[in-house]
Specification:
Shape: globular
Number of strands: 13
Distance between the termini: 47 Å
Number of helices: 15
Strand content: 5-15%
Order of helices and strands: HHEEEHEEHEEEHEHHHEHEHEHEHHHH
Structural class: alpha/beta
Strand order of the largest sheet: 3-4-6-9-10-11-12-13
Helix content: 25-40%
Largest sheet: 8 strands, parallel, barrel
Amino acid sequence: MPNTPKAASDNIAKKATLKNEEPAAPIATSTAARIDEGYAPSRKVDTLFSAFTLPSGLTLKNRIVKAAMEENLATVEQVPSQTLLTMYRKWAEGGAGLILTGNVMVDHLAMTGPGGLALEQNTDIAAFAKLARVSKLNGCKVVMQINHPGRQVFSKMGGKVLSASNVPLDMGKHSHLFGQPKAMDVAEIEDVINRFVHSAQQAQKAGFDGIQIHAAHGYLLAQFLSPLTNKRNDHWGGSIENRARLLLTITREIKQACGSLFSVSVKLNSADFQRGGFEPADAQMVVDMLSEVNIDFVELSGGSYEAPAMQGNTADARTLAREAYFLEFAQAISSHSSVPIMTTGGITRLPVAQRVIDSGVALVGMATALAFTPDLPNKWQQKQEDVHVMPKLKWKDKTLSGLATMAMVKRQIRRVGDGKSPQGKLSPIISLILDQVRTAKLTKRYRKRFGQGGN
């Protein structure tokens, strides 16, 4: 683990926003300008549909990755349902080179939502094995994203609400929706490390090509990385090396337990997009640390529940590009890193996806676009540009806007998983109402099953 950042970190810091200074709008402006003005690379590069071999030896047939989304399509046993299996079959047949699953929890009592998947040491892996098989159709590869929500647990869920420190979510008038987190003690930290390793081993047994450790979007590992949520004064907090210790420890132990041929990747924030939070220079340092562990790739995203930059909204007034939100960050880090970089966020058009590859970024992640058009990669190869695009919500209440956006995506996934055609236009209000009703029913089911009452 490096004691000091590389010189590249200084360049990242100059290009991005320094803590407590004015937002660095030119990052998004230059990216958007390059995309909209037909930016052309100065060197010959691979195409979007060229094969790519990861450091572990896993070869992807193209550079398009179905990125992780919140699906909430688990059975009562928290394993994949038939609806979910149908959806993943559609994605595999649709032409992506790699599928990243929606986040699978390492602890059934710490969930992002009541319909989520959980894979623990004693979980029956039969349904997960089916998910791996259907996801590998058409030459596709599949990696399971494993996660712990930390403090981002809805109050109605009950269960564990843990974090690096006892800093609650600040969602304004919606803060009551989330539980008060408990600062983790050493035993709880060790338990979480073991759970990530056990989940990875179970995924390997089920036939997945690898796992991705979720350390972005304000979940537990991102909470340890961010100075806004990590106020610890032990060796798990303070310096970036200490704040990254949990992520690095989990990564090393999974690598050791699963072997060098099993793909291990990390999803990381390029920034929290909150003043005083995790910044691009921090991201560069963490990528440098991860390079020493020989992981397959780092997916760069951004934001959290408080600042949903992954939906195009920030909390520090920084302006993101209209498409490929995090491309500028990914390109800068990729140019100084030996680890392949993937970026996701707002990509819906073929020219934009190709320009991500042209910029030197190895993989293009798409989520919402593939929820609305599961066979988009095939359409692009057939020179078809038609794609259902979800409307960009600009509601004043950003929390409700974020929930409505997620509701529309989940509604579309359920449609396709139920064997229906994608619907081009979905009402955000109706989608939000339907999602709230469905979530209430699933929450009651969850609490009843795990002995927390049915209310």
